[in-house]
Every structure is written in structure tokens, then in C-alpha cells.
Specification:
about 10% helix; about 300 residues; single chain; eight-stranded antiparallel sheet; five-stranded mixed sheet; mainly beta
């Protein structure tokens, strides 16, 4: 920051700094200079257990249940389409550090179940009913400053330092400080990291459940040897039965190449007398409903197939 960016009186509660300028010591002849090096850090492991009952020659039932436990770490999730997006989209304490941490794409726990019933109710024409269930842990996210805390010109990617207790950092007002500690009391992930910088992707979004149903019916065809069938898919059955079910709630990602971050406080300068950070607290980010392509709504689709 330039000097104005360190002056607490220049920052308002919304985290907007008057006269504050990030990257104030940069070489004005260049915009971004990046040197990318390979890393051997990171990796993924998945363990899957499943139990299956095949459909026999004389019965009509098939079912399968499964569970997958996953662990995944990376240094950079490579969520951007250009190099500078890949560099800026990672939540970090030091943007240039090579530290492997929990991946944005990790699914820690995933349960699946498949049920299928087949019979001939209408002469030789097969009727089939199938259902698929998936229950999974939510996507990881990081607790971050909601604005630019380190003055590198990138908003929302600076991992949050959680104060040890009152007085460890300063606040814009006693009201803001009281509201902050009330919020921390509701967040186990922040309580456990008091006096420390939170780890990248230490938070997890809400659990998600989904059930899909398919009903298939064979039909008479026009010629011998031909087959016809029609099917009905009911997607997200839970949301059809109850509008409060079947939702996918996640921490908002503002755009492609942006960090998966939940903003908690705003950086508000550095107190000149004590050298302590000043936090401004208003409204922390919340999970939002993921529904850009209807993930949290039920849907119906009908299909027809003729084979010859």
C-alpha cells in the first residue's frame, strides 16, 4: 500500500479506502511479470467401497450402494484460463508460496445408491424403474479478507488471520468488534484457528443430496425385430416433493479464475501506535444457492428411442 492505504481513518466500514493505492512501489513499465515453475507437491487419493446385488435370470431387482472417501491437495487449482488468473485465483497467505493444501475440487465423503426394478406388465414389453441417489460433502472454501488486505491489487484472496481474542487486532468501532466475536462464536472453523492464519480451503460448504428417477416402457414397433421405448426422467425428486429439499448451497465464486473464498472482515489499515491491523466488520459472506443451470430445482424430461 501507499501511505494512505495504511491509515485507518482513510478506510470505511465497507473496506473502501480513500486515496489508498495497491502495488504502489511497482515498476510502472510493466503490468504483470510471472515466472511459473513446476511443483512436485500435491496429489489425490480415493478409497471406494461398494456392495452390489446383480439382477438374476428369474428375479427383477438390482441394487448397489457405495461410499467414496477422497483426499486431494494442490498448490494451485488452475481455475483460470490465463496465467495471471491462475496466480491470482488461489487463496494464500503469500501469493508466491509453494504450499500444497486442500484442493477446491476435493469431495471428502460421497455416498451413492442405485435401485432398479424390471418386469413385463404389458405382454412382452419391458417396464423398468430406476433411481439414483447421491449424497456428498460440500465444496471446500477459504476464510478470507473480503477486500485486499496485503495491497497486491487482488481482492478476496488473502487468507484470514483470526485474532486470539479481544485486543489482538483493532476494530473500527466497539460495535463492529462485538459483532465480529459473536460471528466467530458461530463458526467452529474460525474458533479452532484463533491466533493463526486459517489454512486454504479449511471450510466446507453444506452437504448436498440428490435423487433422480427414470421410468422406461417398451412399446410395440412397426416391424419384426424393431424395438421402441419411451422414458421419463424426474431429476432432483426431493425438490419436487418439497421445495426446501434438493438444494446445492455453496460459497459464491464471482467469476472464472476467482478464489473459492468466504469474506469475513475488511482490511482497514494499520494502527500507527501499536502496529496492529485494523479490521472493519459489516456482513460476512454467506453460502448461496447454486442454480445457474437448475442444479437446485426439479426437472422432467421425456425421451423416445426407436431401434432397428
Amino acid at each position: 500500500w501507499n501511505p494512505a492505504g495504511y491509515t485507518p481513518s482513510n478506510w470505511n466500514q465497507a473496506g473502501v479506502g480513500t486515496g489508498a493505492q495497491a502495488r504502489s512501489n511497482r515498476d510502472r513499465n510493466y503490468r504483470d511479470v510471472l515466472l511459473a515453475r513446476p511443483t512436485g507437491k500435491g496429489g489425490a487419493q480415493n478409497l471406494t467401497l461398494s456392495l452390489q446385488k446383480p439382477m438374476g435370470a428369474t428375479d427383477h431387482w438390482f441394487w448397489q450402494v457405495g461410499y467414496t472417501h477422497g483426499r486431494a491437495e494442490d498448490v494451485n487449482q488452475l481455475a483460470g484460463s490465463i496465467s495471471v488468473e491462475n496466480w491470482s485465483s488461489r487463496a494464500a497467505f503469500n501469493p508466491n508460496e509453494e504450499v500444497a493444501s486442500r484442493s477446491n475440487f476435493e469431495v471428502r465423503d460421497r455416498f451413492t445408491a442405485v435401485f432398479n426394478y424390471r418386469n413385463t406388465f404389458f405382454g412382452p414389453y419391458r417396464t423398468e424403474i430406476g433411481a439414483f441417489y447421491e449424497g456428498r460433502s460440500g465444496r471446500p472454501y477459504s476464510y478470507v479478507f473480503d477486500n485486499d488486505a496485503n495491497g497486491d491489487g487482488i481482492v478476496g484472496n488473502d487468507l484470514l488471520y483470526v485474532p486470539k481474542g479481544p485486543g489482538d487486532v483493532l476494530f473500527g468501532s466497539p460495535t463492529e468488534e462485538a459483532a465480529f466475536w459473536s460471528y466467530v462464536a458461530t463458526q467452529p472453523g474460525l474458533q479452532a484457528r484463533r491466533g493463526q492464519v486459517v489454512e486454504r480451503n479449511s471450510g466446507t460448504s453444506a452437504w448436498a443430496n440428490n435423487v433422480d428417477l427414470r421410468i422406461t416402457q417398451e412399446l410395440p414397433a412397426f416391424f419384426d425385430g424393431h424395438k421402441a421405448e419411451v422414458w421419463l426422467d424426474v431429476l432432483n425428486v426431493g425438490n419436487l416433493l418439497n421445495r426446501d429439499w434438493g438444494h446445492v448451497d455453496e460459497v459464491f465464486v464471482p467469476g472464472f479464475g476467482q478464489p473459492q473464498g468466504l469474506g469475513v472482515v475488511e482490511y482497514g489499515g494499520v494502527d500507527p501506535a501499536t502496529g496492529k491491523y485494523v479490521y472493519r466488520f459489516n456482513s460476512p459472506d454467506k453460502e448461496i444457492r447454486r442454480d445457474t443451470v437448475g442444479q437446485s430445482r426439479w426437472a422432467l424430461q421425456v425421451g423416445f428411442r426407436y431401434r432397428f
